[in-house]
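TEACHING EXERCISE
Course module: macromolecular assemblies
Task: Read the component lines below, then compare them to the predicted structure of the full complex.
Student: A.B.
Group: 4
Components provided:
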Amino acid sequence: MELTAVLALPLIGGMVLALVGHRRPAAEINAAFSLLTLFAAAALTARVIAGGPLTAYRQQFFVDSLNVFLVALTAFVGFTTALFSRPYMRVEHDHGKLTALRLRLYHSMFQLFMFTMLLALLTNNMGILWVAMEAATLTTVLLVSLYRTAASLEAAWKYFILCGVGIAQALFGTILLYFAAEKLLGSEGSALLWTHLDTVKAHLEPTVLSLAFVFLLVGYGTKVGLVPLHNWLPDAHAEGPTPVSAVLSGLLLNVALYAVVRCKVLADGALRSALAGQLMMGFGLLSVVVAAFFLSRQKDVKRMFAYSSIEHMGLITFAFGMGEATASFAGLLHMTVHSLTKSAIFFAVGHAAQKAGTQVMDNIRGLIKINPTVGWGLMLGTLAILGMPPFGVFASEFLILTSAMRQQPWATPILLMALGVAFAAVFGKVQPMVFGDTSARRLPHPPAILPVFVHLALVLMLGLWIPPYLAEWYRQAAKFIG
Amino acid sequence: MTPATVSIGAQFINLLAAVLLLLSFAMLSQRRILSLIDLFAMQGAVLFVSTLVVAFTTGQVHLYYSATLTLVLKVLLLPWILHRLIRRLNVKWDVETLINIPTTMLVGIVLVIFAFNLALPISELAGTITRSTLGIALATVMLSFLMMITRRKAVPQVIGFLAMENGLFFAATSATYGMPMVVELGIALDVLVGMIILGVFFFQIREQFDSLDIRHLEQLREE
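Instructor-supplied answer key:
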């Protein structure tokens, strides 16, 4: 029942918003549907806390400790982004950057995008997971090109083609997975159900599964933004509207990584070797290092934070690759805090860039004088994402590094160096943006600053104290990942 | 099914697989955009017939549905949309390639050998009558990939993308007798929606650049 509501609400919302169009309350309806989805997700979460994992609709959907917190997180960030986008998109419209027709497209596609992500998280069928991931690309392509500038069209084209090709590899991986599963589970529809695959994973053919995992990792890894498959990510983040950057970075990357983790659990069971984990560690480490060095070369603020997302996704992939309970626990925690922090940063950056009329960092100065709340939001968010205590990112990065020291000591200095480089690069660029001198006037409209501070407060809380039930989920999920 | 029918069916599918590979090479070497669309439609037709043969020889009922889906989507609907797009966009140019065609063909041959080697251990495990075609399916995917890399204009790139999907579909029927129906429907929906979005997208690109040349889309890069 709650599950139906979680999936149906954004779907209905997308259709309603396509009908409502550009009339005045479209943004409010968007926020209302996101709020209802959040309530439904909260109810679903409460039910899973009380009753444990559950399946629905002839086992086509299932909720367990791994996906339930991602569902809650997705619904939450979806709601705060809808709150942020209400004034933001209205100003973009008033500045003449968007026509009313494109606002309608934006609102409708935003809800459908939420639907595809929730479907990807909740489905039990590996085939439907693929379909939902592809649909998530399709719903966001037209959002990335919303401004119809030359650069945004190019970014959207790159996004479509690279993710399309990537996800085609994942389809081949899924076919191979089905090929291996069919022998054990029969050719009925159940052979692609993850829960069924999980019970027979030890008997799946290892040669087929290793090839399948490589294809699945490359395919879904393209959407995670793992180096060297990351080319679409900075462009799509920099050229799309800021609310879209926030949900791409905060949610879509998580969902793609979730797909990789599901596949890894199956591959681990079948292979009885560490191949899957080693591949993930390799891709993860490469992403962290390459992204850290690219950070210092950026001029566009959204582009820089896009590279920071690649860095953090690499770190999480590395943590899951190590495959031990503590490391997986840290990976899950990092997924949560990165998602919250990064979307908060994009909210603050969105207001700052809108005020300055540019995304070029050299031209954004003295935020603290023009609008103290935006300035402090950006500063605190940056400190949080760079891993300063007492924020939650510090806790998860600390856990990842200590388990790396225990398991893969050789990787620890590389990770530490990359984190240091990232700190120097990002802090050096954000500091003058916030504290420098400026001649700009104050913002003419009140910014939607509440989501920024709610997110940062949650990240701060997770750094100091993790609620017991949340820790319990992480522990349960980490147990079967690791 | 008697063993004789199965064996004739298997040989027929091998023949169709060879035709599929031939068509992939033909697409790789084709310079004219309209012929490219026709070749894509022919590839869809071959896929339709081969699915039908697999369905008939194995008695898998759901394959009849996916054969019908292939006929409607890949032989009729997508080529029709592409033709319409070409007419509406009024593009008459020939296809330009980044590498000259003989070189592309040679690279293609290397890719086919690679694909066969990759598929070898898996084909041996397959119990289906069509297992020897898995290598060809993988080769088709890789050749389409090559076509996407070597073409400079937007429309041929998209046809390459769709041809890649054809290859994947062939892999699914040849290795496993097709995916579960709900998944196949989902994939078909994604392909269709993707095509429509691309159609919208083509108009946006042309409005902005007055051309569908991908070279205009190479401004964003790291300094």
